[in-house]
Amino acid sequence: MLSFFLAVGTTSSSDNSIIEPAEKQMNAFQKWWQQINWESITALFIQKTLMIIFLLILFLVIWRITLAVIDRTYQSYGKRMNMNIGRMNTIHTLIRNIVQYTIGFFFLYSLLSVLGIPVGSLLAGAGIAGVAIGLGAQGFMNDIITGFFIIMEQQIDVGDYVKLMNLDVEGTVTSVGLRTLQLKAVDGTIHFIPNRNITTISNTSRANMQVVVDVRIDPSEGISAIRSVIEEANKRIEVAYKDSITTPPVIFGLVDIGNGNYAIRTNFYTKNGFQYKIKEDLLSDSIRSLLAAGFSIPNEPILKK
């Protein structure tokens, strides 16, 4: 019996040694919980939320109004000034991008300030870190500098058809930015090219384009008669495209195109953008007229060295 009471007493004392620390921890948590000023926290949360909502509305209104003013100015200025449409589109896109980046920067700055984040300390730290980051961002800076001079020197405009000789890429310019150039190829492919990779730009949209048409012939059938047929085709194409051809088609003469093959070559200039269509039509008309006049068109393969 005595051993039973001793066992009970030992169990009770061990239970108390476990319960008492747990009660102390619970009491400490309750005291900490009760010391929290929930009214202040709730008021602060509501205040910050309202400030963030106010900032969102404010900067959204500023963003909408600013872009509307830019678009309206662009439209009115474009009507009054006789400027290249592509150049106007390029400047318009550039100004919109600069405004959007600027508004975004000030919005982020204001948002961090409302949240209580020390923006000044972050900017100071960013200045120190910027030195290290700048060493790894030389390519980015090269993009910006090259893009700036491409735009300021008016090397290309939106809508121009250009060839980047060092990259073997060509297409229609869809966007000119400080960092990248966007080209749309004939098959619809969009090329995004960092400005630092651009070394030589061949712009085919700034002047009249030369058209060279070679019509293969058999000289033994009579060069003079063949030439007369081709001259008639040249006259017809000149009349059909009188608004697009800047210089009348002129027969250069007989040329050797290799492997014992000869052709009558015609040269002329057209407005940019019309050269391919006119060249195709003239070549088709010349071949059709020669065949109708009883002349043959050689089809031997031409071997280029």
Automatic annotation (TrEMBL):
Compartments, record wording: Cell membrane
Stretches assigned to the Mechanosensitive ion channel transmembrane helices 2/3 domain: 97-138
Keywords carried by this UniProt record: Cell membrane, Membrane, Transmembrane, Transmembrane helix
UniProt membrane topology term: Multi-pass membrane protein
All residue ranges annotated as the Mechanosensitive ion channel MscS domain in the record: 142-206
Superkingdom in the source lineage: Bacteria
One Pfam family hit: MS_channel_2nd
TM annotation in the entry: 50-70, 91-109
InterPro entries in alphabetical order: LSM_dom_sf, MS_channel_1st, MscS_beta-dom_sf, MscS_channel_2nd, MscS_channel_C_sf, MscS_channel_TM-2, YbiO_bact
Assigned protein family: Belongs to the MscS (TC 1.A.23) family.
Protein name as catalogued: Mechanosensitive ion channel family protein
